Amino acid sequence: MRNKLRRLAVRLYARRVEGRLDTDRGPKHIGVILDGNRRWAKAAGSTTRQGHEAGAAKIQELLGWCEETDVEVVTLWMLSTDNLNRAPEELTPLLSIVEGAVRGLAEDGRWRVNHVGALDVLPERTRRVLREAEELARGREGILVNVAVGYGGRQEITDAVRSLLAKRAAEGQTLEQVAEGLEVEDISEHLYTRGQPDPDLVIRTSGEQRLSGFMLWQSAHSEYYFCEVHWPAFRKVDFLRALRDYAARHRRYGI
């Protein structure tokens, strides 16, 4: 009975917060660092795999909340380049769960799916799933969901510079000419998220207050929100609090 009353109180509070939100002042691009699956599993007496599965299941809920609040782009950090160094007994099932989550997003029918990350560091099966998901979801009008798989912020900038240099070399420019005319926008045009708006808000769950390399270039002027709860336990009320906090801030864009 006590748990039922607590859940009811949370739902009523969430409705109150949502009713006072001004979606016109809300973020249009949200980046989310999905952190805390293993810690949630440990606290719940579950296995690591069950923690990752619970985290994957939470993604659809989040996107539903984003749809309700007029968010247009969501970037989900699902697997970092550092994660690829985990022991095979954890990495193999994790990759399988990530693949299933991405496939589920594409098959849902509501979202556009776009991979951001380095494909060449991923197993062929994962690369195939990502390519097929992008193709299946192409042309839709729903939220653009960037699935950051095999993603690292430093790697992204490195890849962007490499791509830029290759393009300019193909155009016949010398290294000195490239360096002399280089602008910030030139790098942006070669990022994984080229053509997209930078994230307005970056949310990280599990209480860690750092970016860990997430969207290093794009988040220069983003607002950050650090939530104590682990990702599988992230609730709508936690999401709405993040939006409320964002709306209350005066964005200064580095000034």
Provide an overview of this structure.
By secondary structure, this protein is α/β, with parallel strands linked by helices. The protein has a domain at 28-153 and 198-246: Undecaprenyl pyrophosphate synthetase, CATH 3.40.1180. The chain has helices at residues 2-19, 37-44, 48-68, 88-108, 124-136, 153-170, 175-181, 184-188, 236-248, and strands at residues 29-33, 73-80, 112-116, 144-151, 201-204, 223-226. A six-stranded parallel β-sheet has the order 3-4-2-1-5-6, sandwiched between helices. Helix 1 packs parallel to helix 9 (236-248), helix 3 packs parallel to helix 4 and helix 4 (88-108) packs parallel to helix 5 (124-136). The protein is globular.
Summarize the structure.
The protein is an alpha/beta fold. About 50% of the residues lie in helices and about 15% in strands.
What tags apply to this protein structure?
255 residues, Undecaprenyl pyrophosphate synthetase, 9 helices
Give the SSE layout:
Elements: H1 2-19, E1 29-33, H2 37-44, H3 48-68, E2 73-80, H4 88-108, E3 112-116, H5 124-136, E4 144-151, H6 153-170, H7 175-181, H8 184-188, E5 201-204, E6 223-226, H9 236-248
Parallel strand pairs: 1-2, 1-5, 2-4, 3-4, 5-6
Gyration radius, rounded: 19 Å
Element pattern in H and E: HEHHEHEHEHHHEEH
- The proportion of residues in beta strands is 5-15%
CATH superfamily of the domain at 28-153 and 198-246: Decaprenyl diphosphate synthase-like
> Based on helices, strands and strand pairing, what is the structural class?
alpha/beta
Low-confidence stretches: none
CATH level 1 name of the domain at 28-153 and 198-246: Alpha Beta
Number of helices: 9
